[in-house]
Design a protein that fits this description.
The protein has 210 residues and is α/β, with parallel strands linked by helices. It folds into two domains: 170 residues, Flavodoxin domain (Rossmann fold), CATH 3.40.50; 35 residues, no CATH class. The chain is 34% helix and 19% strand. Strands 1, 2, 3, 4, 5 and 6 form a six-stranded mixed beta sheet that branches. Helix 1 crosses helix 8. The longest helix has 15 residues. The protein is globular.
Length: 210
Amino acid sequence: MKVIGFSAGSVGREGNVDRMVKAILEKSGHEAEFVKLADLSYSGCKGCVQLCARPQVCKLEDDAQPYYEKVKEADAVVIGTPVYFDTMTSMAWSFVERFFGYRHVDIPIAGKPFVAVVGGAMMLDSAVEQLQKVLGAFEVNLVDTVRFQSKVPPCFKCGRHKECEIGGLYKMLGDAAKELTITKEMFTQWEDDAATAAAIDAAAEKLKNI
């Protein structure tokens, strides 16, 4: 059995979404491959339907293209995205959008087990619904959705929170954000959240039993 996992986690570091996807892959007990989308150079769908209709897989040539064949071949797929502006990231959307290559006459990934992973500082529901909706267009078997609300806004790293009134931290704390000293302990990790850890185990168990 082969499981492939994709994370749209932020560039240059191994964040919560990366580690959540990896944990599900590892705990599934199957042969697994992890792909960090930020390491690839690719675009969204460009509408070149004449290329993908007969092979029923995206043929747009870039770094992402080989992975669409791997999705077809895998026994299960895990897809993770952070939340930007209350939605899944454009990186995740662009990758999944090109699943359109599968959607001609029939859908070769229909029924394939998928797990969705969503993590972010605050509101997650819209991103969860968006990811579930787009995957639903391809009739996959979404066996589980795992989410982690980190309460860690990008402001923790940007360095300008003491002068900012438009960022997520200010929305969370108001004027108190300007007096806040950012410490290492504020960077919450899913591994320390019992509910998320249990959800990771449950999702992995569902893949283990496919």
